[in-house]
Design a protein that fits this description.
The chain has 122 residues and is an all-alpha fold. It has one domain: Helix Hairpins (Orthogonal Bundle). 84% of the residues lie in helices and 0% in strands. It has 4 helices and no strands. Helix 2 packs antiparallel against helix 3 and helix 3 packs antiparallel against helix 4.
Length: 122
């Protein structure tokens, strides 16, 4: 049995993966207000992080922490969509899964905030 889209190898697989990623970004941007807000904030703060960081490590932490928030938001949205795909019916495990994804986003935002505060003020 061949899994759909697993038959491609090499450059064709990489090419397809790139467009799947673009589609994922588009879908998240189109449907998730939190992702839009975080993306706008990242686009504004990444240049500032590159300017304010004194070393390569500081610039990496300032910018990387913003990208990390986006990454966790994408994963959280994927979890939410998978749960919704299964059923819109209220279920405690579905609620817990979505709450855990939300908690992960909150922790990524705290990490980002602590990184910026530590680098800029200490």
């Amino acid at each position: 049995m061949t899994i759909p889209d697993k038959k491609h190898k090499g450059l064709k697989r990489i090419w397809n993966a790139f467009f799947y990623s673009v589609n994922g970004f588009k879908a998240c941007y189109r449907t998730e207000e939190a992702f839009k807000q975080e993306l706008v904030l990242a686009l504004l703060l990444i240049p500032l992080g590159l300017y304010l960081g004194n070393t390569a490590i500081e610039r990496l932490l300032l910018c990387g922490s913003l990208i990390f928030v986006l990454l966790v938001e994408l994963l959280n949205t994927g979890i939410e969509r998978a749960i919704d795909r299964i059923s819109f019916e209220k279920h405690e495990l579905s609620k817990e899964s979505k709450d855990m994804g939300s908690a992960a986003v909150s922790l990524s935002i705290l990490l980002c905030l602590f990184s910026w505060i530590t680098i800029l003020f200490f």
